[in-house]
Amino acid sequence: MIVLGIETSCDETAAAVVRREPDGRGTILSNVVLSQIAEHAAFGGVVPEIAARAHVAALDGIVAAAMAEADVGFGDLDAVAGTAGPGLIGGLIVGLSTAKAIAFAAGKPLVAVNHLEGHALTARLTDGLAFPYLLLLVSGGHSQILLVAGVGDYRRLGTTIDDALGEAFDKTAKLLSLAYPGGPAVERAAASGDPARFALPRPMLGRPGCDFSFSGLKTALRVEAEAAAPLSEADVADLCAGFQAAVTDVVRDRVGRAMAGFAAEFPGVDAPALVLAGGVAANRAIRTGLAEEAQKRGFRLVAPPGNLCTDNGAMIAWAGIERLSQGLADGLDAPARPRWPL
Ligand code: KG4
Ligand code: ZN
Q: Whose CA is nearest to atom 8 of ligand 1?
């Protein structure tokens, strides 16, 4: 089974071709991603209108490149998968319409994929994971802890009640006049900082459930930054280190609770997996904290390669394969859905 996947929900224009092997594993035949970071950098965040226009300009070429690299023609495909949501409506319409056009012209089924399902199933493509497992998805748009029990069978254990974690990193960077995207810049600055100098809150720590909240932390950081202004390089490093330590504690606590709940519900699953996805999963402090917590609780940490943790077409193609294998496909009237919880 060979599927073309198209992803345009945010600021990456991406297309990929993935083949499912007879043993159920996936082979990525091509995975082409064009990041729009440069186009949005001056604005300190993704500008929806700029993103949609950039997708229009780039997508044909990205699809052609993915098909050429995979050395397949549209006639060789078993289906075309496109992200239908959640995400920025302009970009979603560009990608989904393109997927529909190719599916219609080639006479192939369309699979309208939920972007979060793409992230949720990636570990089965890369590591052949069996259900059930836990997923922590932390990106610029999402902060979720999911129980992945089967294709189409997801339970959201926790989500953010305000900002996404990547958004919190980006806003912190902006406040401290660091580069965009903020996550890598904050991590770099934190490396030489003292995490204990500023007493920052750990929102939700120890609370029931697995939800996140980051806006109070953002406000506390702003108050500290304003009190310490004008900020030296050392002040910025200390604030970044304090912020990173606070979010690491919070993520560890929330995911720890999810692992405890999972272990109680599925006592028969031996060495269950905690899968990481999303751009923030690249953060080494957070990863180290989670690795410790996982080890403590008998979980193994599964971190797909970085380029498959962030937005890409291969995860959409793979979700298409998984859905198609269950006999699931969509009509050409499938709508783009900017809000679409799993
Ligand atoms: O998954 P992603 O590439 O795109 C979407 O948001 O869909 O995630 C991007 C987010 C940005 O907010 C970025 O600041 C954050 O991930 N990020 C990081 C790191 N690298 C990227 N956050 C913390 N530490 C990092 N090393
Ligand atoms: Zn994503």
A: 279
